[in-house]
Specification:
Strand order of the largest sheet: 9-12-11-10-13
CATH architecture of one domain: 3-Layer(bba) Sandwich
Radius of gyration: 21 Å
Shape: globular
Number of strands: 13
Structural class: alpha+beta
Strand content: 15-25%
CATH class of one domain: Alpha Beta
Helix content: 25-40%
Order of helices and strands: HEHEHHEEHEEEEHEHEEEHE
Distance between the termini: 42 Å
Largest sheet: 5 strands, antiparallel
Oligomer: single chain
Bound molecules: flavin-adenine dinucleotide
Length: 242
């Protein structure tokens, strides 16, 4: 998306990616249907130590911009609970649409490109890969988060931040199921596969949605939401009869 916007501004854009193909994480997103937007996006929906950043980021590219992009590419979609928007078909339609738009503004892609070093000069950056050296006026690092390393995720972005003395907030898992200790796992094992409407909460935050008992612990939308706020050692309160 960044390459596309830069290309639209007439910049000469080269995308280097060590993966063999584009958008692997988009392909698995939303269970393969990509939850590409939400009708009700507010800055408060995002966890960020600087809430003003969320306001400006959302104002500059809203859910209506992405819906316009989806409609322009004739990708059919539907709404699920809480205004979530999913493709009717496969998430690959979104990757194809992005690649098509990028091609139209002249963005060039180089896959299988392992980056070894980044050097900053006064008015340019030099990026060294295993077999090539590139020089550019601007450099965008968009190497993503740490989840699912077997489809290309790497800590490279964090390493570059360290190299340039950019402070890092320690990353932690979010939107994930919670695993139970062995004793609780055994206690709840008969409930595995059952989902109930429940309220789950920590000291300052709570969610009311389904909680799913699994063979490892707890999942379902309420738990996934809460996981982004939970820190190891904190007690999670669950009301199964809200
Ligand atoms: C299972 C799952 C489901 C999800 N579902 C949704 C959803 O439905 N809706 C939603 O909005 N979000 C969803 N997300 C989150 C979403 O996928 C990410 O927020 C999004 O992909 C982040 O985009 P990105 O461009 O920052 O990083 P990524 O999509 O991770 O892209 C980073 C790219 O950088 C490349 N790279 C990494 N390291 C290097 C390196 N050293 N050298 C060269 N290239 C490198 C990678 O190969 C990759 O192509 C989901 C995530 C997961 C894991």
């Amino acid at each position: 998306m960044c390459a596309l916007e830069a290309g639209k501004r007439g910049r000469k854009v080269l995308v280097l990616d060590h993966a063999k193909k584009p958008g692997s994480k988009i392909l698995i997103s939303g269970g393969g249907s990509c939850n590409f937007a939400n009708y009700y996006v507010e800055p408060e929906n995002f966890i960020c130590s600087n809430p003003h950043f969320c306001k400006s980021a959302i104002n500059r590219y809203t859910q209506w911009d992405i819906i316009e992009f989806i409609n322009r590419h004739n990708i059919s979609f539907h709404e699920r609970e809480h205004g979530q928007l999913f493709c009717d078909g496969k998430a690959s339609q979104i990757v194809d649409a992005l690649m098509l738009d990028c091609k139209q503004v002249g963005v060039v892609f180089e896959f299988g490109s392992e980056i070894e070093e980044i050097i900053r000069f006064d008015s340019s950056f030099v990026v060294k890969s295993s077999n090539k050296k590139y020089e550019s006026e601007s450099l965008v690092v968009a190497t993503g988060g740490l989840s699912i390393p077997n489809i290309g995720a790497s800590p490279f972005g964090y390493k570059i931040a360290e190299q340039f003395n950019i402070p890092i907030i320690s990353p932690k898992a979010g939107l994930v199921p919670l695993t139970l200790h062995n004793q609780d796992k055994e206690r709840f094992s008969d409930l595995s596969g059952i989902a109930v409407d429940a309220t789950v909460g920590l000291k300052d935050v709570s969610f009311r949605e389904n909680v799913l008992f699994t063979h490892r612990g707890l999942s379902g939308p309420a738990i996934l939401q809460l996981s982004s706020y939970w820190n190891p050692g904190e007690t999670v309160e669950i009301d199964l009869l809200p």
